[in-house]
# Entry
Amino acid sequence: MEMQPSPGPDCGFTTPSRTSPSGKFVVDAPLSTKREKLLRGTPTRFRAPPARRLMKSAPNMHHRFYLARDHIEPFAQIVSFKQPEDQPTLGSRYRPDLEETYLQQCFVLQGRLGQGDFGEVVNVRSKDDGKLYAVKCALDIYRNTADRREKLQEVQKHELLPPHPNLIHFVKAWEERGRLYIQTELCSQSLDDLARERHEIPEPEIWYYLIDLLMALEHMHSHDIIHVDIKPSNIFVTSDGICKLGDFGLVFDLNKDDPRNASEGDSKYLASEVLNDKPTKAADIFSLGMTILELATDLDLPNNGVFWHEIRDRMIDEKYIGFLSPELRRVLAWMIDPSPLNRPKASELLKDPAIKKHKLCRKVLLMKHQMVLTVSDHLSIAYIFVTYVLYYVFLPFIWLFDFAHNWSKPIKTTPYSKRGIRNGSLIGPRDRTPEFNMPSADLSRQPISSTPFRFRLNFDDPSTYSDNENGCSPVNQTSISLPDYSGNISPYACYTGSGDSPTSSRTRNGRKRRPRRGDELFVDRRHLRKSREVEEELEEVENDYTISD
# Structure
């Protein structure tokens, strides 16, 4: 079949007349760009959310909840129309006995991407592989079996449609507690968000988006599947700048679906013949042409009214399309032709000379980008490999250097390494030993704490103790009066110094110093035995010192 020649610039867009048709007043808002509407103070970015669609028939509350309870599964279940061996699994992280849903147990919520009439899309990170995904969550639970069957058709069409680089990749779907969840790949942003951020998109970039979407439509139309709802919010852009068509909720299968159950897409991008007839492949071409027209001109497309009909008659003011190239104006006018029979197919558009030229440039840029990514990945792998090799090559030399450094370095010991214990005190060389004994405080009159003994300690008392009280000290809280020795030092005195001889008891010239008051406080109490013999020896020692005085 010979390709139909594309229309020239003379049969493209025309400038509409501002006269009111049929003598009626035009009350519609004037056609303008999104930037002009934003400057007027009525930004479309913050428009009110769309109204929820009403049910065709609303049963009574009791019957409605009764129907809902019959189709609510308490646990998560995979939704798939493939063979059992080809179906995905929920994973080992999911525990049905917990109160958290499967989404909460197996994913980490990163943010919210958007919300529509039927559900909201959230950005999540999988706990299994750590990758980012988009999950579409249904807002309402299943009303009945028919409603559940209708919603699961989106999953079936996802699985029946072969994958394509310009279609959103479907991962899996599951249902839990009466709601449907669809997990897909995550893109950086939608084309609608891109158009609102950048009101002037370069024309080469417009061509690239058109080529990507035409290849996606060609793939779908070759399987007799119509998207029906092509618009910027359903088109997504990856970080590599590749456009992907998504949101297959209204997808229509020409071979299986009933035309009476076909749904309409967004009225801004809807072809006029779809209002009275079933959707066709030409309607997808028209919606794609309106999408590209909106991106190229930044027009704020109307939902209805006079300007809605004028745009479908290709009557657009020259100030909005005058800066477009003749090739782009010709292709857009061909795609939004009022007659669906005159519109080209996706395969015919891809064979157009202007599109083929930009398609070749697009392929070169993608190959260049892919080459840069491949080289970057290989360089990263090579860097890691070289780092590991150098580390293990020089590791023995590092060990030898550390061993030689530690071997040549003398070992430092503490000054107490050669110490010994004699009579419970340290002996041997010791640092910071004072050369003279410091003057001791007079503690003879200071009270001591109460003891469990009944009598006071008095060595001059000749009375004997009972068998149970031999060697015991008094219990009364009193002061201890120690004798003042002015003569020789007690044989049980201990010196504050350490070593083989009491070095601290000698002066600078080596002479032995006289005993000082307080030396008797250092009597080693371990020599005080709790026996009568020890007490008698202590009495004899005290008597000897008394006689000497």
Observations:
- The chain has a mean pLDDT of 73.
- The chain has 13 helices and 13 strands.
